[in-house]
Design goal:
The protein is of the alpha+beta class. The protein folds into three domains: 120 residues, Alpha Horseshoe (Serine Threonine Protein Phosphatase 5, Tetratricopeptide repeat); 66 residues, Ankyrin repeat-containing domain (Serine Threonine Protein Phosphatase 5, Tetratricopeptide repeat, Alpha Horseshoe), CATH 1.25.40; 58 residues, Nucleic acid-binding proteins (OB fold (Dihydrolipoamide Acetyltransferase, E2P), Beta Barrel). Helix content is 41%, strand content 13%. The strands form two sheets. Strands 3-4-5-7-6 form a five-stranded mixed barrel. Helix 10 packs parallel to helix 12. It starts with a helix and ends with a helix. It comes from Aphanomyces stellatus.
């Protein structure tokens, strides 16, 4: 039989009192710390963020320091990510001093970070708090979404302005759509993006000649995303990036290619080097007479040339 949430909260507070003291120091076992994070996550997901906040504010520093903030729910979201998505500013402020940069920018199973969730949900103050704590504005999901694209698609102009001020770049996603395109499709006219687009356009006008001195980067094609975009793995650091290509250019999967970085920071196909060569097929029956060989035997094909 499932226990009610009131009992669950009572169990949380009772656990807080079960401390082990040694010379005034307070310790908490790893198992207790893990369970503690599970309790906090459960409270946030059931609308009891205020209870979670009270428990943190009442705790002693050694107990909070023992909490493993990298623990997640079944979808890979940390307590910070859930608090950010839910708009719980005070709880985010209570958690942030105890998390490392890696946890601050830790993506869930969908690739979304705490900043992305807050941006998509329109929580202006939380975005400002996360950015002040050092949240990375350039993190991208597998499909090329960023905090900027999520905020633009949802029509949150003030958050878009914050992200642009922190250096966010309006790069296209895996489908080739920029934050401007996503906002326009949803019927949003964002002043921040208009100003950004004008600034980028004026910069491009000042540069009469394209910089062709950029060194191409070797990569391997992983997937075909659309007629104009492919996903490639860079040979330098093995990261996956979205690469734009001409619509009439056929690029096979697993082909070796060279890509260059465009003026806006996005990747563009430079040259197709070739496919990964297959091993040459050999005759499976070398002693069999020629007229008895298989139809697709390489010896037979060679004689027909």
């Amino acid at each position: 039989m499932m226990l009610g949430w009131r009992h669950h909260v009572l169990r949380l507070h009772l656990r807080r009192r079960s401390l082990v003291r040694d010379g005034g120091a307070v310790y908490m076992s790893e198992a207790t710390a893990t369970t503690r994070v599970d309790d906090l996550i459960a409270l946030i997901k059931t609308g009891q963020a205020d209870v979670a906040l009270d428990s943190l504010q009442d705790d002693e520093p050694p107990r909070i320091a023992a909490i493993d903030w990298a623990m997640t729910d079944n979808y890979g979201s940390t307590a910070l990510t859930l608090a950010s998505r839910g708009g719980h500013l005070s709880l985010c402020q209570a958690i942030l001093p105890h998390v490392s940069p890696s946890i601050l920018n830790q993506p869930n199973m969908f690739g979304s970070t705490a900043l992305m969730c807050a941006s998509a949900s329109g929580h202006d103050a939380i975005c400002r708090t996360l950015l002040a704590a050092g949240a990375d504005v350039q993190v991208r999901t597998r499909y090329g979404s960023t905090a900027l694209s999520k905020a633009a698609e949802a029509g949150h102009d003030s958050i878009v302005a914050q992200l642009l001020a922190r250096g966010a770049v309006a790069t296209p996603n895996a489908m080739g759509k920029t934050p401007w395109d996503l906002a326009k499709e949803k019927g949003h006219t964002l002043a921040s993006l208009v100003q950004y687009d004008d600034a980028v356009s004026s910069t491009e006008d000042d540069d009469d000649e394209e910089d062709e001195d950029d060194e191409p980067v070797a990569a391997r094609v992983g997937r075909i995303l659309s007629a104009t975009h492919i996903e490639c793995r860079l040979d330098t650091d093995l990261t996956f990036v979205v690469v734009a290509k001409p619509e009439d250019t056929m690029v096979p999967v697993n082909a070796a290619v060279d890509v260059v970085v465009g003026a806006d920071g996005s990747y563009v196909l430079h040259e197709i080097i070739g496919r990964r060569e297959r091993k040459k097929q050999r005759c499976l029956h070398p002693r069999r007479p020629f007229d008895k060989k298989c139809v697709d035997c390489p010896d037979r094909r060679q004689s027909q040339r």
